[in-house]
Write a structure and sequence with these properties.
This protein has 285 residues and is α+β, with helices and mostly antiparallel strands. It contains 7 helices and 13 strands. The chain is globular, with a radius of gyration of 30 Å.
């Protein structure tokens, strides 16, 4: 990324010679000519410093500017007579505000991640399942996870599935993630919605999914594919026209760092400090 100091004409004054100075070796500035906006150095992204000679004010203005592709020049001016150091920051902020980040989540990864995040709320010691329901406008209308019904304390009701006493088995009490998501929806109808779920629905959840009007189910795990309840669920989905497909996330793990929002801010400050330069180092020959 090239960093330039450019001697430009002020638009209100007569045209002056435009000179670009490579800042790669700040101690020994090498002078090269830059005759047009289309020069590769000028059109490349990065910090570009501008020295505007304004005779009428008997003062020079040292300024940060950029040549973003397809946009007008961006200037941040400061009177060099009143500043000891230069902290060019405008282009950095402009780039972070308008430049599109490439490593963002696509819609499917985002919605499936919401399902997995919801699963983290489950108290089940063996299997934590999460579901996320999305409408045709890609809006989340509900999330859910497997847990005890409202009013049934998860500290009192059993979580075991192999208890000798059948009434102490969780299967009689737990609401599955899919059912909770459907019941907790924030809209009147789920017609034509898509459900993202971490585990393929059982036969009981399949009934409710079909009745709710959900048109498609995307899942990550089908580890109970050989069990009768899963086969029954697929049979009902096929008959009702509810499509289902195994989804493979583009990344195996997604880390949530609650300190990232602050570290990003600190990184921006560090970038500014990194390119801070003392004015006395400039020596234009």
């Amino acid at each position: 990324m090239s960093r330039l100091v450019t001697l430009l004409d002020d638009q209100l004054l007569t045209t002056q010679t435009r000179i670009s100075i490579e800042l790669e070796r700040i101690e020994n500035l090498a002078v090269t000519s830059a005759t047009s906006r289309e020069d590769s150095d000028l059109t490349s992204s990065g910090y570009t410093l501008v020295l505007l000679i304004i005779p009428r004010f008997n003062s020079d203005f040292l300024s940060l500017h950029s040549f973003p592709r397809g946009k007008d020049n961006v200037y941040q001016k400061g009177n060099v007579c009143q500043k000891e150091t230069l902290r060019p920051f405008s282009y950095a902020e402009e780039d972070k505000q308008t430049g599109k980040r490439e490593n963002y989540l696509d819609w499917d990864n985002y919605f499936m991640a919401m399902a997995f995040l919801s699963a983290k709320r489950s108290k089940d010691p063996v299997t934590q399942v999460g579901a996320c329901i999305v409408n045709e406008e890609k809006q989340i209308v509900s999330v859910g996870y497997n847990g005890m019904p409202t009013g049934c304390s998860d500290d009192i009701f059993p979580w075991s599935k192999d208890s000798v006493d059948p009434l102490e088995r969780k299967t009689f009490y737990v609401c599955h993630a899919e059912v909770n998501a459907i019941l907790n929806r924030n809209c009147y109808s789920l017609k034509d919605c898509i459900m993202y779920v971490s585990l393929f629905p059982c036969n009981e959840c399949a009934k409710v999914i079909i009745q709710s009007g959900i048109k498609s189910v995307k899942y990550v795990s089908d580890k109970y594919a050989e069990k009768e309840k899963t086969q029954a669920a697929k049979r009902m989905f096929d008959a009702a026209g509810v499509t289902y497909s195994k989804y493979s996330p583009t990344c195996e793990k997604l880390m949530i760092d609650f300190t990232e929002i602050n570290s990003a801010e600190n990184k921006e400050i560090s970038d500014e400090d990194e390119i801070e330069m003392k004015l006395e180092k400039f020596s234009i020959v």
